[in-house]
């Protein structure tokens, strides 16, 4: 039964195969049964592996969801290989390429045959084999090696001459080695480096020095230290504090609070002083700012019994010791530095400072403050040069802005310049302001006042911000979550459902894209879910390079017939060759289903890819490269 | 199924001379040029569909009877399932033992008729492989039997079961019996002794089984034998059972074969064409059936020798000549009744609807296929009298089913239905926007290795959810859906598998994307690993930033990258989250003061309020208290671990001496 069935299957398959052979379809193979009941011969199934369809060529690239600025390359990193025939035909191409880089090609030795790093490595490697010898001998070892190397390169007769040099050479080398290794000693940092405030070597330094690293490396636009996008960061000392929030706790923080030190003074005196002082200072009317006057008063009033409640957060034992005597407290370098940092922020809120320092009581802080009084700046007065804003003026501002945007649009200058926050203290943003000359709005990152005429005011839409009614949309800007407070751009950080449709790039609300071989050429990118017309699909990310660099790179890309360059503005180009995201695989079409739009997104130009029409599931994405 | 008979070779090649009848004196070149154009348009798709038909016969991908619009083809009920027992299978197998062979069973419809009968001899012809010495292929003829069959029987009178039948043993087809046999065919030889009067010659010429006898053209054909009235006239017809590729060509069914006189030797293979040439004139393909004698029979492959009694009754067959109206009438009515019993109410609905749409008085459908080509400027018409699909010979038995089938299975063409007084006209044109791309499950193409329907035993397949049952909302079947739409716009071709009919690849590894990975987007993470590493190394490169600062900066950068903060007003929230997430780490690593410096710096940039600093530091203290044994560790750390911290800094900065300085950045 089985065998006849089998026979039947075989026959059918034979028929099928014969037919398919003529049609060049791969034949079906029947696996012959091994355990055939009667069969004495062993039969082994033959398994054919079908050829796997090859995929288009892809050069490796790094995934990126945000642009990444890179510096110009001063040396040619590699000589591109494009097949022998091209090199044969066009030898001048490589020459020209090298000429672009002033003849510099990566891998050319910059210094001699041994540089500092290799030298140090060599000595430390050799020192492992000479345990009980001292440095001198190591140096000799080293010298011998040096000599040997020289020997191989130079002629033998030169050695004698070298040996005469050897004495001075060995001295030089040992000095150099010491120089190099001393830098590496633990804890020894270059002089310009502030010691770790949490470390044992913390020194007492000024506020600026403590915060220097944080101030200089922080990017106010990316909120990151040493960000990938903005090479130059403004330091905050020029930023103005808009809200003077140095509120001082009016209540003492505990039994031990320094306020009791102060409160013994005659009230009348204090009040008169406060009156005088508040006219200048605008501080909250508290007694603390008057310490300079009362430095001599170290007496404590006997009213402590009424203030016994209150939970002490100070770390000192709750034992009453409210004598007027200043305790002799040791202030470590770290604590002193920290105090100076905090005093610049909290001013005279000693309770808060003490809380933050953690190891000192407010009283100790207060006393230290008294000691340091000469060097510490007081709370800054309110900025005089900005008059308080007026409601009416703001309205007028708005109207002029809308007009201005329209004008800017109509002027249709094709040149779009990169935005750089302006910083010209005490000068309004006029024709000399870089923002104005570049025809950019001033952003929240600019150092000018928030009342600046050139500031973009944001929108007040209650709709989706996807029509020209929205000033942001009109100005080809995404809504700024710090300016546009009504449209929803500043809400719902967690969800993707934002009422404002004009903040997709900044939120990275891209669509899921899928990679597959294109129907047109090479790889293509396909959309997973259907999208509506004008919906945001993805940001075209890549390296941000200068126009010059783009010219140099473009020469190579043109030769490869494959370019991922995308003009961002007059200053920069996005290159998705090395770093990018999946949208880089979108192909060119004269009748595309997507379009690209360069938008100003929180001070950065970014490229958004949007749907030109409704796109169905699984469609390949195209946009017009031109 | 239907009363209409299958053509012997089932070949209806649309390229056959359709224009011939209309043009009186066609110039040869013109015809040829026109023919070329016609072929150009229709040849390729037709070939494809013919190939697919054959493949589907051998290895069906699906069964037509399972289609909704073909439900009438499903003559089986599942009533037996209720009483089914597994043991029954054994019984069936037992019974089948010994009768595994498949004898060829030919019940001929023709019953003994005392008035007029002819003798029919059926021979099995085996064409053997040519040996080297042979000039032509050796042929073996095996007689299988001889029967008297009635001549021109009255179809109404024939009784079921009364037809003579012949049985061809399947042994004859066993390959073991004759290895050399290349192909098998059945040779029908009908002989009739010429002892008849002239009347018989005039009236009932030697046409087997033709209901209508008085066709002048046929008489002309046979008149040549009139003189030799005494001799035996012999007509032969040959049908291939297995062709030389061992493909079975004769399937179960009712056949009508046109016979040819013994004298005109059967058309030699070399001259074989699709067209029939008679007296130097080409005939349309079906004309032969009205030109010469024909033989009707029913063929059944049977696995059961005793099936004779249960063999289905040969139904009276219809002729293609519309003159014979009375038998036709009965046929159609019978047919319809049969349909109604099988089908449910919906299909009867179709039936009646169809009747309304069509012209009522007509008994029989004639379907005109009008082939439009050369930018719809030219046309050829071909008529068929049955509801078989011209491409795959599938009997659709209903006009609606036929149209639906054409539209769905032969989408390389566009079919438009036009009602016609005699039946239906179907305009056939080439579908210019035919999208031949694969619309099945992409995983089926690419699942490694190879085949979706492997015959090689088990194949590892990717786990995919296939929709096995889908009950979409169906509109009531109506012929109007095949009418050409007015607005001219072709109805949007629905893709049946939505969108993703291709295999996707991972953008990083170029490996095929498995269906279970479809949902995860490689771009969902805002901070790819290399970028996280990059930000750390970039900070490490600074020589004038101390290790505590670096560590806090790195932590903060990773935090920002992870959450992608974009607005100033998110910063307070971000700081609190930072304290929450990394607080424990900061305490363990003894970085509290650096953390505080970071907060103050943020405050200096006017991004956070002092209240946030207070809250964040309070949270940190709280975490510190919650941490077990942190106090002791803290004690140790202040003494010992600071060194460890520095030691760590050395390892991180050691290799990157003097790369960058922060002061350079501000210049």
Automatic annotation (TrEMBL), chain A:
Q: Specify the CXC domain's residue ranges.
A: 402-504
Question: Which InterPro entries did the record assign?
Answer: CXC_dom, EZH1/2-like, EZH1/2_MCSS, EZH1/EZH2, EZH2_SET, PRC2_HTH_1, Pre-SET_CXC, SANT/Myb
* Alphabetically ordered keywords of this record: Biological rhythms, Chromatin regulator, Methyltransferase, Nucleus, Repressor, S-adenosyl-L-methionine, Transcription, Transcription regulation, Transferase
Catalytic activity reads: L-lysyl(27)-[histone H3] + 3 S-adenosyl-L-methionine = N(6),N(6),N(6)-trimethyl-L-lysyl(27)-[histone H3] + 3 S-adenosyl-L-homocysteine + 3 H(+)
What positions does the domain SET occupy? 511-626
Q: Which residues form a coiled coil?
A: none
The protein's Enzyme Commission number: 2.1.1.356
Please tell me whether the keyword Transcription regulation is annotated for this protein.
Answer: yes
Kindly give the PROSITE patterns that the UniProt entry links to this protein.
CXC, SET
Question: Mind telling me what this protein is named?
Answer: Histone-lysine N-methyltransferase EZH2
Q: What gene, per UniProt, encodes this protein?
A: ezh2
UniProtKB/TrEMBL annotation, chain B:
Alphabetic keyword roster: Chromatin regulator, Metal-binding, Transcription, Transcription regulation, Zinc, Zinc-finger
Name the record gives this protein: SUZ12 polycomb repressive complex 2 subunit b
The answer to whether keyword S-adenosyl-L-methionine applies is no
Q: Start and end of every Polycomb protein VEFS-Box domain?
A: 492-613
Which gene carries the instructions for this protein? suz12b
Tell me the organism.
Sander lucioperca
Recorded family membership: Belongs to the VEFS (VRN2-EMF2-FIS2-SU(Z)12) family.
Q: Where is the Polycomb protein SUZ12-like zinc finger domain?
A: 366-433
Region (Disordered) residue spans: 139-164, 196-231, 308-333, 630-667
Composition bias, Basic residues: 657-667
Task: Specify the taxonomic lineage.
Answer: Eukaryota, Metazoa, Chordata, Craniata, Vertebrata
Q: Where is the composition biased (Polar residues)?
A: 319-331
Example of a GO biological process term: chromatin organization
A GO cellular component annotated for this chain's UniProt record is: RSC-type complex
CDD domains, sorted: C2_II_SUZ12 (cd21740), VEFS-box_SUZ12 (cd21551), ZnB-Zn_SUZ12 (cd21750)
Keyword Zinc-finger (UniProt): yes
Tree of life domain: Eukaryota
Q: Which InterPro entries does UniProt cross-reference here?
A: Polycomb_protein_VEFS-Box, Znf_SUZ12
A single GO molecular function term of this UniProt record: zinc ion binding
């Amino acid at each position: 039964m089985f065998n006849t069935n089998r026979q039947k299957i075989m026959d059918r398959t034979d028929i099928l195969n014969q037919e398919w052979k003529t049609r060049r379809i791969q034949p079906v193979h029947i696996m012959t049964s091994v355990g055939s009941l009667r069969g004495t011969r062993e039969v082994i199934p033959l398994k054919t592996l079908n050829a796997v369809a090859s995929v288009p060529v892809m050069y490796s690239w790094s995934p990126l969801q945000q642009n990444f600025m890179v510096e110009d390359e001063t040396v040619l990193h590699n000589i591109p290989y494009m097949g022998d025939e091209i090199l044969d035909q066009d030898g001048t191409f490589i020459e020209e390429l090298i000429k672009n880089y002033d003849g510099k090609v990566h891998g050319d030795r910059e210094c001699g045959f041994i540089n500092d790093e290799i030298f140090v490595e060599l000595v430390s490697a050799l020192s492992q084999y000479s345990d009980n010898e001292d440095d001198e001998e190591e140096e000799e070892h080293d010298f011998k090696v040096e000599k040997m190397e020289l020997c191989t390169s130079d002629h033998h007769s030169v050695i004698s001459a070298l040996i005469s040099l050897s004495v001075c050479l060995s001295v030089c080398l040992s000095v150099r080695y010491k120089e190099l290794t001393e830098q590496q000693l633990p804890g020894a940092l270059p002089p310009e480096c502030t010691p770790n405030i949490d470390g044992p070597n913390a020194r007492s330094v000024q506020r600026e020095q403590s915060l220097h690293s944080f101030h200089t490396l922080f990017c106010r636009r990316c909120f990151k230290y040493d960000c990938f996008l903005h090479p130059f960061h403004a330091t905050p000392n020029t930023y103005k504090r808009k809200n003077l929030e140095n509120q001082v706790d009016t209540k003492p923080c505990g039994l031990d609070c320094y306020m009791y030190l102060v409160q013994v003074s005659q009230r009348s005196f204090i009040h008169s002083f406060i009156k005088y002082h508040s006219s200048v200072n605008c501080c909250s009317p508290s007694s603390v700012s008057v310490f300079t006057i009362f430095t001599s008063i170290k007496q404590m009033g006997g009213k402590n019994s009424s203030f016994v409640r209150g939970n002490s957060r100070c770390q000192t034992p709750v034992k009453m010791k409210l004598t007027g005597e200043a305790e002799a407290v040791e202030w470590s370098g770290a604590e002193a530095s920290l105090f100076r940092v905090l005093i610049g922020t909290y001013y005279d809120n000693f309770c808060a400072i003490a809380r933050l320092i953690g190891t000192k009581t407010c009283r100790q802080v207060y006393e230290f403050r008294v000691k340091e009084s000469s060097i510490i700046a007081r709370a800054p007065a309110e900025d005089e040069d900005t008059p308080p804003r007026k409601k009416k003026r703001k309205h007028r501002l708005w109207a002029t802005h809308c007009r201005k945007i329209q004008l800017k649009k109509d002027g249709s200058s094709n040149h779009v310049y990169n935005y750089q926050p302006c910083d010209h203290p005490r000068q309004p943003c006029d024709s000399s302001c870089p923002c104005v000359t570049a025809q950019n709005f001033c952003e929240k990152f600019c150092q000018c006042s928030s009342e600046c005429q050139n500031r973009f005011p944001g929108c007040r839409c209650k709709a989706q911000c996807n029509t020209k009614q929205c000033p942001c949309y009109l100005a080809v800007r995404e809504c700024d979550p710090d300016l546009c407070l009504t449209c929803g751009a500043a809400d719902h950080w967690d969800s993707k459902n934002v009422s404002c449709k004009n903040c997709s790039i900044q939120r990275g609300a891209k669509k899921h894209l899928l990679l597959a071989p294109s129907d047109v050429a090479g790889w293509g990118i396909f959309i997973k879910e259907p999208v509506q017309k004008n919906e945001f699909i993805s940001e075209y990310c890549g390296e941000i390079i200068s126009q010059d660099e783009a010219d140099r790179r473009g020469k190579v890309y043109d030769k490869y017939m494959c370019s991922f360059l995308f003009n961002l503005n007059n200053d920069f180009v996005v290159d998705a060759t090395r770093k990018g995201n999946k949208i880089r695989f979108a192909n060119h079409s004269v009748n595309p289903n997507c379009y690209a739009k360069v938008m100003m997104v929180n001070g950065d130009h970014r490229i958004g890819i949007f749907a030109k029409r409704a796109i169905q599931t699984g469609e390949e994405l195209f946009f017009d490269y031109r | 199924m239907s009363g209409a008979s299958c053509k012997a070779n089932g070949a209806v090649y649309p390229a056959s001379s359709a224009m011939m009848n209309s043009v009186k004196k066609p110039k040869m070149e013109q015809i040829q040029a026109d023919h070329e154009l016609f072929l150009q348009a229709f040849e390729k798709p037709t070939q494809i569909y013919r190939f697919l038909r054959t493949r589907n016969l051998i290895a069906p991908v699906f069964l037509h009877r399972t289609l909704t619009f073909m439900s009438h083809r499903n003559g089986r009920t599942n009533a037996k399932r209720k009483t089914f027992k597994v043991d029954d299978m054994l019984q069936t197998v037992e019974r089948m033992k010994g009768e595994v062979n498949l004898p060829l069973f030919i019940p001929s419809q023709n019953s003994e008729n005392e008035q007029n009968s002819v003798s029919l001899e059926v021979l099995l012809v085996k064409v053997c492989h040519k040996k080297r010495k042979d000039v032509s292929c050796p042929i073996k003829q095996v007689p299988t039997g001889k029967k008297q069959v009635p001549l021109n029987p009255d179809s109404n009178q024939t009784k079921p079961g009364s037809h003579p039948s012949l049985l061809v043993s399947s042994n004859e087809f066993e390959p073991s019996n004759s290895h050399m046999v290349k192909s098998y065919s059945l040779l029908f030889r009908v002989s009739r002794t010429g002892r008849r009067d002239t009347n018989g010659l005039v009236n009932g010429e030697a046409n087997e089984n033709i209901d209508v006898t008085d066709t002048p053209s046929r008489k002309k054909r046979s008149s040549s034998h009139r003189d030799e009235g005494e001799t035996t006239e012999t007509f032969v017809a040959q049908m291939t059972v297995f062709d030389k590729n061992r493909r079975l060509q004769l399937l179960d069914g009712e056949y009508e074969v046109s016979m040819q006189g013994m004298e005109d030797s059967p058309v030699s293979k070399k001259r074989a064409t699709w067209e029939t040439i008679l007296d130097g004139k080409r005939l349309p393909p079906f004309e032969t059936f009205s030109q010469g004698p024909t033989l009707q029979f029913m063929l059944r492959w049977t696995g059961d020798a005793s099936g004779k009694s249960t063999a289905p009754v040969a139904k009276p067959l219809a002729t293609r000549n519309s003159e014979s109206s009375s038998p036709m009438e009965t046929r159609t009515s019978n047919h319809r009744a049969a349909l109604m019993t099988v089908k449910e109410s919906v299909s009867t609905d179709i039936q009646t609807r169809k009747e309304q749409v069509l012209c009522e008085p007509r008994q029989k459908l004639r379907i005109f296929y009008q082939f439009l080509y050369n930018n719809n400027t030219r046309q050829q018409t071909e008529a068929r009298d049955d509801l078989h699909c011209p491409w795959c010979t599938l009997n659709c038995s209903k006009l609606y089913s036929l149209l639906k089938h054409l539209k769905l299975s032969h989408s390389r063409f566009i079919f438009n239905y036009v009602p016609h007084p005699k039946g239906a006209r179907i305009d056939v044109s080439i579908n210019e926007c035919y999208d031949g791309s694969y619309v099945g499950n992409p995983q089926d193409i690419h699942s490694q290795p190879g085949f979706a329907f492997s015959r090689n035993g088990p194949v590892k397949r990717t786990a995919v959810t296939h929709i096995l049952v889908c009950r979409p909302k169906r509109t009531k079947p109506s012929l109007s859906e095949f009418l050409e739409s007015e607005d001219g716009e072709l109805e949007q071709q629905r893709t049946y598998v939505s969108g993703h009919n291709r295999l996707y690849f991972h953008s990083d590894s170029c490996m095929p994307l498995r269906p279970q990975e479809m949902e995860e987007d490689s771009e969902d993470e805002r901070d790819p690993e290399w970028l996280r590493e990059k930000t750390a190394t970039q900070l490490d490169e600074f020589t004038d930033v101390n290790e505590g600062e670096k560590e806090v900066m790195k932590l903060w950068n990773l935090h920002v990258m992870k959450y992608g903060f974009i607005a100033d007003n998110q910063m307070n929230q971000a700081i609190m989250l930072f304290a929450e997430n990394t607080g424990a780490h900061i305490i363990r690593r003894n970085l509290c003061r650096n953390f505080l410096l970071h907060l103050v710096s943020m405050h200096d940039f006017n991004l956070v309020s002092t209240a946030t600093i207070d809250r964040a530091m309070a949270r940190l203290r709280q975490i510190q208290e919650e941490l077990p044994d942190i106090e002791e560790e803290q004690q140790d750390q202040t003494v010992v671990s600071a060194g460890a911290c520095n030691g760590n800094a050395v390892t991180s900065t050691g290799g990157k001496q003097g790369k960058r300085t922060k002061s350079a950045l501000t210049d």
